[in-house]
Specification:
The structure is a single chain. The chain has 414 residues and is an alpha/beta fold. The protein folds into 2 domains: 326 residues, Alpha-Beta Barrel (TIM Barrel); 61 residues, no CATH class. It contains 15 helices and 9 strands. Strands 1-2-3-4-5-6-7-8 form an 8-stranded parallel barrel, surrounded by 5 helices. Helix 2 links the parallel strand 2 and strand 3. Helix 1 packs across helix 2 and helix 2 packs parallel to helix 4. The two termini are 27 Å apart.
Length: 414
């Protein structure tokens, strides 16, 4: 399976679709490759995304262990008939500033001791690599000049890593989309710019991972319109802006709170101009309405997302819930809509400044479970999730157009 060139590649308007399972569910439970490979095979999947959290993080485990781990993975795959198609970062790197750290020593350590070993492991296993390993501290977000500088450093680092990966022979590399300003890319246009910039700086393809639950936060960061601000300022008498009202930078918030204490309408109106100017100066802190819709993400950038993380979404958080009948009844993620949105992305004109569109996509179940979930219950939830998606992806590697046509013609059981 090749994420960017395809095996006997279908037309670019119809990528091949694979169903995979991330082994993050197995962390601290079934940690040996032989264990999680066998479990995932028994669930009905043959493609695996191996999470660094499942005892495969080079920062924790070191080079000797990682070499032995790769050997175990190859043996487990051969015995169970599964394939590790991608490696992925876990909570360890997600919870740090990582590549976005203000201190160059931390950034270099992350590149040398995490990224390069992970790239080498992915290349050795014939897998792709996806990750999220950076964030910007609030002090950077507050200052447009510091933000631009930090963003430039990050893009340079991503380009360096992408080039290293290409030279090592990694099948595909990409960063995951997130849902808040301190973790870019978190908007559709921002993600497009990251892919464009990294591709231009590195000269090699660099992609995106779209997660069906990673658009739950953007609605909280919408920029208020002038009329909305005017109505809020006219209320007067209040000392503070409600905590759920997003105005971006702290300077903007202070300006607006000064307005709330003004009784004179003309004074408030003049002050609103400064508030709007401040928000525009910090435009990177705001989202649009489409950024909060997973199907908009897939329709816009699905063709550049060799990995799509699947989780059921039943509320306002990215809880990585399974696709059980109970969750599906309340959830907003449906296979047909996912596949149709991806098809829309391929139907659109290709952007010549972005990397080549993928000819293969791994739709990857990324289901989390708390320590209190009984093991048998967890495995049952996973089994139901695989069965649910197998109704839409009955055979790995089938072109997307055939999957959708089969459903329309009733060839695949509902």
């Amino acid at each position: 399976m090749n994420q960017t060139s395809g095996d006997s590649a279908p037309p670019r308007s119809s990528p091949r679709i694979y169903l995979a399972v991330d082994n993050c569910f197995a962390y601290k439970r079934w940690t040996a490759p032989a264990e999680w490979a066998s479990l995932i095979r028994d669930l009905g999947a043959r493609c695996i995304e191996a999470s660094a959290d499942t005892e495969a993080d080079p920062l924790y485990n070191g080079p000797e262990y990682m070499a032995a781990w790769r050997t175990e993975v190859r043996l487990a795959a051969a015995r169970s008939g599964v394939r590790v198609v991608n490696l992925y970062s876990g909570h360890g790197t997600y919870t740090t500033l990582g590549l976005g750290h203000p201190d160059a020593r931390v950034r270099e350590r992350m590149k040398e001791l995490w990224f390069k070993p992970m790239v080498e492991a992915a290349a050795d296993l014939g897998a792709g690599l996806g990750f999220f390993a950076h964030a910007f501290p609030d002090s950077v977000l507050q200052n447009p000049a510091r933000y631009r500088e930090a963003r430039e450093r990050l893009l340079d680092s991503l380009a360096e890593i992408a080039l290293f990966g290409a030279r090592q022979g990694v099948r595909s590399m990409g960063v995951e989309q997130m849902y808040a300003p301190h973790q870019i890319p978190w908007t559709i246009e921002g993600a497009r710019e990251v892919l464009r910039e990294v591709h231009a700086r590195s000269g090699v393809p660099f992609y995106l991972t779209i997660d069906t639950g990673h658009s739950v936060g953007q609605h909280s960061f919408a920029m208020p319109g002038l009329e909305e601000l005017r109505k809020a300022a006219a209320s007067g008498g209040r000392e503070r802006v409600p905590p759920e009202q997003w105005l971006g930078a702290d300077t903007t918030l202070r300006r607006f709170e000064d307005l709330l204490r003004q009784d004179d309408e003309a004074t408030r109106e003049r002050g609103l101009a400064g508030v709007v100017e401040d928000m525009q100066a910090h435009h990177y802190l705001f989202s649009s309405s489409r950024d909060g819709d997973p199907y908009e993400w897939l329709a816009a950038l699905g063709a550049y997302s060799p990995i799509v993380h699947l989780q059921q979404v039943t509320g306002s958080s990215s809880a990585h819930e399974p696709f059980t009948p109970e969750c599906n009844a309340r959830g907003s993620i449906h296979p047909r809509r996912v596949l149709e949105a991806i098809a829309d992305s391929y139907a659109a004109a290709a952007d010549p400044e972005l990397p080549p569109r993928c000819t293969s996509l791994c739709l990857t179940l990324e289901i989390f479970a708390g320590s209190g979930v009984l093991p048998r219950r967890l495995l049952e939830q996973l089994r139901m999730s695989v069965e649910y998606w197998r109704r839409w992806i009955p055979v790995d590697g089938q072109p997307l157009a055939e999957l959708l046509a089969g459903r329309a013609e009733g060839e695949v059981n509902p």
